[in-house]
């Protein structure tokens, strides 16, 4: 910014203006984002119209009589320039395969890709992460890097042992349970050392690509040490960058961290960020209180943490989906054919759908137990209700997940033997077209998370219910429940009786009640999702749409970059 201001004739005057802007909550975004104008840039100085903070009007009026017109025109052109953005996640959103002796990459669907792709309207970004496979040969590494470069992706190569200890050893065996409110975790120093080493390798790979004023956006619990490691390296190179961190899981209260001896290192690692985002106010407040109790950080001002001469902002960012993608898919002829087939097959029963990754936090054993209780409580509904449960395979090489799958198969067999096959249990992934058809014909969606960052299945189900107005039955421990409880039926997943009653109530709602709940949820999903069409072949401009939260986060992070000492 400083170099750009040197285009102006009166540098002292411009410095005064920028100082005033940075300290004005209304005008702090005006020049950078171009969303609020002090004056109409399409008019010559003699006819400029004041727009904005009237308390500063007298200060700016004199400026308008001099070179401020040229300053405004220059800033208007700057606002059209793309902000440099580096996105960092443990795994790159691409799959890399060796085909006929060479490497090829293709863009993955869902997750961060769906939420972030539209940022190319305002940013030019690179994506750093592990490519998902071990590549030892230097020539092969060059080839992998080249194929990923076409998608603006930068690989960080890890050997298989280090990647395993980092991901499965520490991130998922130790951090994941704690983040999902589970106690009794046993610490192991070997995976902890791997976790630290991977975060260091990420920092080393990113620092040379970052320029001053680059925005760096780090994602999720695999990289909690990275903000501090990266800040140290950037400072050594004299680079000033804004670092943001988004956590896509819950964040528990401080007691759950008590048995983890490295908890201070993790929390301090995050506090080198300028902005930290959570999915709900509960998770955000838990983090703030943990910083205060564990590190004696100052947290008197809402959403703000003062620690070691750093000001860290925290905020809630509601992640969304692309509802139009579901609407468009539902109109495809083959999907319409599938919907007709499913409607005919289940024309005499109420259909309950569940779609979950096979994980303990999804409450799948609780779901089957609660459904069994529902059938016991309402024998009159035997052969009139069916639960179609999709359990998407996850971490199949981990014993705890293998045991969970065996338990679920056993429970499914007992329920069908007892009640006459009211349960269709599928342990497999379902193609997107089939999934939308299944959502569309379901009268109820049952989600039983014991802890969940958000659970976007709730959003997806609503996006497919324009015609049927199906009912969402949602665990109070899903992050989405914080926003969707008014339009859904809430319950405690550990209470079988409560779950049984919730299912019965959902099936019994009349058309007006279903419509009212659906319209509330539809409005929420649409209001919290902003879509920007883009059409290019690169990751930075894929044919996917961007969710509102990605735009909101980068805008707030950019504000922190321009005025880092300004209150949150």
Give me a quick take on this structure.
One of its GO terms (molecular function) is alpha,alpha-trehalose-phosphate synthase (UDP-forming) activity. This protein is an alpha/beta fold and 568 residues long. It contains 22 helices and 16 strands.
**Oligomerization:** single chain
Average pLDDT for all residues: 83
Helical segment count: 22
Please give the order of strands in the largest beta sheet: 5-4-1-6-7-8-10-9
Indicate the CATH topology of the largest domain.
Rossmann fold
Pfam families: Glyco_transf_20
GO biological process, one term: cellular response to heat
GO molecular function, one term: trehalose-phosphatase activity
InterPro entries: Glyco_trans_20
Secondary-structure blueprint:
Elements: H1 2-5, H2 11-22, H3 30-33, H4 57-64, H5 68-79, E1 83-91, E2 94-99, E3 102-107, H6 111-116, E4 123-130, H7 138-149, E5 153-155, H8 160-179, H9 189-207, E6 215-219, H10 226-236, E7 242-246, H11 263-270, E8 275-278, H12 281-295, E9 304-307, E10 310-316, H13 323-330, H14 333-345, E11 350-357, H15 364-377, E12 385-392, H16 399-419, E13 423-426, H17 432-441, E14 444-447, H18 457-463, E15 471-475, H19 481-484, E16 489-491, H20 496-508, H21 511-527, H22 548-562
Parallel strand pairs: 1-4, 1-6, 4-5, 6-7, 7-8, 8-10, 11-12, 11-14, 12-13, 14-15, 15-16
Antiparallel strand pairs: 2-3, 9-10
